[in-house]
Write a structure and sequence with these properties.
There is one protein chain. With 475 residues, the protein is mainly beta. It is built from two helices and 27 strands. The protein starts with 21 loop residues before the first helix and ends in a 15-residue tail after the last helix.
């Protein structure tokens, strides 16, 4: 594979020069100073939808991977404005190759502070010379027209074979200075690393080894867990080879500091199948939600929430399908908690949690899948007002079919700009692996199916390319 480029992004162009209207120029300049919100690639105040297809075929190269993007609008997703990006796209460094898995990791921030969100894309299967699966991360820079033809690729300094750099990504502000940092997992070395972006340049700031063995899966999420005004990063891992050994599964909290270094916080050894961070009770300290899809101790899976606290973590509580107010009844292998996402769907100022249960039955339709919305409250997440959505829900496009796995991935982003996060739900095995994504609008009651839309491979022209749309969503 082509070696990763370390070229710095070009300096941001003046937004004022791009408009002849004084009011538009002033608004754009303000956005550039504060930075665009994540996934707002064209700076219009509405989040766009990014879908990763890391096993997709590009120019006959299986598993090369690509990313599909559709813009948000006042009325929801605007399928007239969409694009598919791969390593064969002009301006993207490298070339699409078999097994690169471009699109395995997705995260967004306005890294160069030009008023347009950028998209970081992980390709853990990218080779570096003779080092197979060393991995890299490509940042595709936003612009007035969305993700454009400018991109920069970064590899791990001295990265080794099978390190899988870029498999998982997150963004946080560990210094509390308003400038985002990109964090990159390296599961093939049982460590994480991070890249700091400032003044249009990137540099590695550090790395920490978590154990003596590499891991099968890892997750990253960020938020201000201790409420000190600086972002913290949560790194979770799970090794399927011997999950009964305590140190092979769990998560660690790393607290941000003014000097851009981490202060290691608490480690919790527990089963992890999904991870999300958000302030569910509105106390200005982010809580950590961990999905555990095992049928014990909860039939069908559960979500455990570890409360944020002044000294890192407080107590914990669990929610499952037996919790009062949560619709339905859990059965074995529902895998409730397989995917998690945080956002404010009902605009009450507290984070809500989307939960995927992709193997839940819908009536007599096996493994059709469901998604749930759990609402935040002063007590944290509860079952009160909880909603569930399937493809048989009235107003939702399509219909539930066996093994679609609706809920495989979930996200909560405001695609309409009305302040309410919308629920996107992936069903990667719909239409024989072409996949699809359904978006349900946020509302004061949590969700409304009015205006729900679905996008699939025909939307992007990726039918027959193993797109598995909905297998990975930017969130």
């Amino acid at each position: 594979a082509a070696a990763a480029s370390t070229a710095a992004p070009a300096a941001a162009a003046s937004t004022a020069a791009e408009s002849t209207a004084v009011a538009s120029a002033a608004a754009a300049a303000g956005a550039a100073r504060s930075g665009a919100r994540p996934y707002d690639f064209n700076g219009d105040g509405r989040r766009d939808l990014a879908i990763g297809s890391p096993n997709g075929t590009v120019a006959g190269k299986r598993g090369a991977g690509f990313v599909s993007v559709v813009h948000g609008s006042r009325s929801g997703l605007d399928t007239r404005r969409k694009k598919v990006i791969s390593q064969n796209t002009p301006g993207v460094p490298g070339a699409a190759e078999t097994g690169d898995h471009f699109g395995s990791g997705l995260v967004s921030a306005d890294f160069n502070r030009d008023g347009y969100a950028d998209l970081a894309v992980g390709a853990p299967g990218e080779d570096a010379g003779r080092r197979a699966n060393a991995g890299n991360v490509t940042i595709i820079w936003g612009s007035r027209s969305g993700l454009g033809s400018r991109a920069s690729a970064y590899g791990e300094a001295g990265g080794g074979a099978r390190h899988r750099f870029g498999e998982t990504l997150t963004v946080g502000d560990i210094q509390g200075d308003g400038s985002p940092e990109l964090f990159v997992s390296v599961p093939g070395t049982s460590s994480y690393t991070w890249l700091y972006f400032g003044s249009g340049r990137a540099r590695a700031v550090g790395a920490r080894t978590l154990s003596a063995v590499d891991v099968d899966r890892s997750w990253l999420a960020s938020g201000d867990v201790n409420g000190d005004g600086r972002g913290d990063v949560v790194y979770a891992w799970f090794d399927a080879d011997d999950p009964e050994i305590e140190h092979r599964r769990g998560f660690t909290v790393f607290h941000g500091t003014a000097n851009g270094r981490f202060s290691k916080g608490r480690t919790v050894y527990t089963t992890v199948h999904a991870l999300a961070v958000g302030d569910f009770n509105g106390d200005r300290r982010a809580d950590i939600a961990v999905g555990d899809t095992d049928d014990r101790p909860s039939v069908g899976g559960r979500v455990t929430v570890y409360r944020g606290g002044l000294f890192g973590l407080g107590g914990s509580y669990a929610i499952d399908q037996a919790t009062s107010g949560v619709p339905g009844l859990g059965i074995n292998e529902d895998v409730f908690g397989y995917s998690l996402a945080v956002g404010d769907a009902n605009r009450d100022g507290r984070a809500d949690l989307a939960v995927g249960a992709p193997k839940a039955d819908v009536g007599r339709t096996f493994d059709a899948g469901r998604a749930y919305l759990l609402l935040g409250s002063p007590k944290g997440l509860t079952g009160r007002g909880a909603r569930t959505v399937s493809q048989n829900t009235s107003g939702v496009p399509g219909g539930a079919e066996e093994y679609d796995h609706f809920g495989f991935q979930v996200s909560l982003l405001d695609h309409t700009g009305d302040g309410a996060a919308d629920l996107a739900v992936g069903a990667p095995d719909e239409d024989r692996g072409d996949g699809g994504v359904t978006v349900v609008r946020g509302a004061p009651a949590g969700l409304t199916t009015h205006g729900a839309v679905a996008v699939g491979s025909p939307t992007f022209g990726t039918r027959g390319r193993n797109a598995r749309l909905g297998g990975l969503l930017g969130r």
